[in-house]
Amino acid sequence: MSAPLRNSPGLRSLAELLSHWARERRTLRQGFTALGISTAVGMAAGIVLGAMEGLLEQLPGLLVLVPAAIGMRGAIFGALAARLGTGILTGQLQPPLRRRSFAGQNVEASILLTLFSSALAALAARGLSGALGIPTIGLFELMVISVVGGVLSSVVILAGVLLMASLAQRRGWDMDAIGAPLVTTSGDIVTLPALVLATLLIGNEIVVGVVGGLLLAAAVYAAASGARNEGPITRRIVQESIPVLTYAAIVDILAGGVLETRVEALITNPALLVLIPPFIANCGSLGGILSARLGTELHLGMIAPRVVPEKLAVLEGSLTLLFSIAAFGGVGLIAHVAGLVFGFDSPGLATMLGIALVGGAIALGLLFAVAYTTASAAFRFGWDPDNHGIPVVTATMDFFGVLCLVAAMALFGVV
Predict the structure, then answer these.
(1) What pTM was computed for the model?
(2) Which DSSP category does 229 fall into?
């Protein structure tokens, strides 16, 4: 090979790319493992959603709530995992767990934000459905389903995040690589059954009205008390997260509205319902991995919050590309197989793979732009990227992920 060719910019860039991948072997191994678990467990959530076709017909407007219910868990607890990961690297995360400790204040903020965001999702779902003329159940019914389902699922996810952080600290795991996928996965598999359980409480109108009103009041109190909390970490997290989660709830509800308008086609091909949770989850997981890593690198001064991404940020995006090929290909394959196993009508293996890969390819470019812009803008304004990056990225990609998925379905002629 001649010297000019050997020193060409293209070959140098390829060499740098391969070198970065080699240096990040541990991250790739852990990330692929976490995404594999995320895809498999997310598929279980998809099977639950596919089996909910009767409930979706019985309770109109419930599908509007589903992306927000799932997305809020990923936004709140994905951000918690990212903050704990940063706490491990900076030495702030130290046992035992006390209320005013670094971990304790993070946990308290997550609980308060769960109440607030769940009630907000119900309000947004009812408001959007009314504005678009989508038939829906009443506000307090949505409130009970959203808040009770959100609290039930959050208890499980919170325990998982704390366990994961403890193991990561002891065993040297990279929380930025495993946190977002595993939290998103937990949100998928736990939230839908929790919502189904919560629907059992909405039979009596008087009880629903009283409980729904109390839950709304509790959510308002949670937001107000968190914003004035004595703990500086709790107060900052709540103050910075409320605007972000408000945006996230609205965007997730818009995603649910898009799905609700396609509900008849989705019920006709329940395998497509199976595809939705893991596809959206992988969009959130990939965005969460990238956002968490960019946030940590900004904290450590490895990259600067520039308008044009530095080389290291672009190389981080290349890891996301590798992750996405495996993640979305796996989603299409497993969704089709799950449809066959559980008797859900499917448009076929090639179509399912095509929908997942084409939708994922469209989503990937949006994902990098949103993750980098959010992390760098937050850092530039003196905010914590861990409080803004993952919630904004997961919520935005919930919406754009649904749009990309529906667009891919339309390209393949199934909706």
Answers:
(1) 0.70
(2) -
